[in-house]
């Protein structure tokens, strides 16, 4: 069963080389919306609702990509030769988790961020539930429920923000840059802010929303714990810094 490990290693090494080449590139592309993005690639998806596949990286997300690929290799090393059950499926979920995190750090559409937010949840749940320790069923379900509730709050906040974009500009949009133009005041701004804040803070997690973390960490296998502590928790902070502050302010 060496093939799944080799495939996982080659995939992470290719990703690492791409990130290194990006770090050595000349800098932000000309004409990017805020003048700070290195890569912008866009494909039409659901134009009726202003949804497109738009990805890119700025300085913060590039730093997070470096961290993600580095810890992905560390997690792979921690799991190398230790997993004896469903080896191929384990490494598939390991790569799936990393792919979801990379998606969160590169998405420039809020709906894409939510999509990849959910993508991270499924494989990490499976890693804990299948390869975790004796109390893995309880820990994985608790992790799943907390993350699902946070995802629901993010969905409500994103839809509300897009609706106000429609009211003010006559079209729905999930564009990170376009939504910064939406003017919000009073209680509406507060409630949308809380939706984003609680959604991201649950994954961070802050005190009061953290009770899932000790169970998930203690029951996850070593590789899962590395990704959970070193990468997944950073997505909450990333959302608060780069999306919450910029969009709602």
Report on this structure.
The structure is a single chain. With 249 residues, the chain is mainly alpha-helical. 69% of the residues lie in helices and 6% in strands. The protein is built from eight helices and two strands. The chain has helices spanning 2-23, 59-79, 87-106, 110-131, 136-169, 186-203, 212-219, 222-248; strands at 39-46, 51-57. Strands 1-2 form a two-stranded antiparallel sheet. Strand 1 (39-46) and strand 2 form a beta hairpin. Helix 7 (212-219) runs antiparallel to helix 8. The longest helix is centred in the middle third of the chain and has 34 residues, at 136-169. The radius of gyration is 19 Å and the shape is globular. The chain starts with a helix and ends with a helix. The mean pLDDT is 85.
- Please give the alpha-carbon distance between the first and last residues: 51 Å
β-strand percent reads 5-15%
Radius of gyration, in angstroms, nearest whole number: 19 Å
- The proportion of residues forming helix, as a percent range, comes to 55-70%
Biggest sheet descriptor = 2 strands, antiparallel
**Tally of strands:** 2
Order of helices and strands: HEEHHHHHHH
Total number of helical segments? 8
Low-confidence stretches: none
Shape: globular
Strand order of the largest sheet: 1-2
Average pLDDT score: 85
Structural class: mainly alpha
């Amino acid at each position: 069963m060496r093939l799944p490990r080799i495939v996982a290693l080659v995939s992470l090494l290719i990703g690492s080389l791409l990130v290194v080449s990006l770090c050595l590139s000349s800098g932000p592309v000309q004409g990017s919306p805020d003048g700070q993005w290195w890569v912008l690639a866009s494909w039409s998806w659901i134009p009726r609702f202003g949804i497109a596949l738009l990805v890119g990286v700025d300085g913060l997300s590039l730093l997070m990509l470096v961290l993600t690929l580095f810890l992905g290799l560390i997690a792979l090393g921690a799991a190398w030769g230790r997993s004896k059950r469903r080896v191929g499926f384990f490494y598939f979920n390991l790569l799936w988790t990393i792919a979801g995190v990379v998606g969160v750090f590169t998405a420039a559409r809020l709906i894409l961020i939510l999509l990849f937010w959910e993508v991270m949840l499924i494989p990490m749940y499976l890693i804990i539930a299948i390869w975790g320790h004796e109390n893995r069923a309880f820990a994985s379900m608790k992790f799943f429920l907390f993350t699902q509730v946070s995802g629901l709050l993010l969905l409500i906040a994103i839809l509300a923000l897009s609706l106000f974009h429609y009211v003010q500009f006559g079209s729905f949009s999930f564009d990170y840059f376009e939504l910064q133009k939406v003017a919000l005041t009073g209680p509406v701004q507060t409630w949308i802010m809380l939706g984003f804040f609680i959604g991201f803070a649950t994954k961070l997690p802050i005190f009061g929303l953290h009770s899932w973390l000790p169970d998930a960490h203690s029951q996850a296998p070593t590789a899962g714990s590395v990704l959970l502590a070193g990468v997944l928790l950073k997505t909450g902070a990333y959302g608060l810094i780069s999306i919450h502050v910029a969009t709602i302010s």
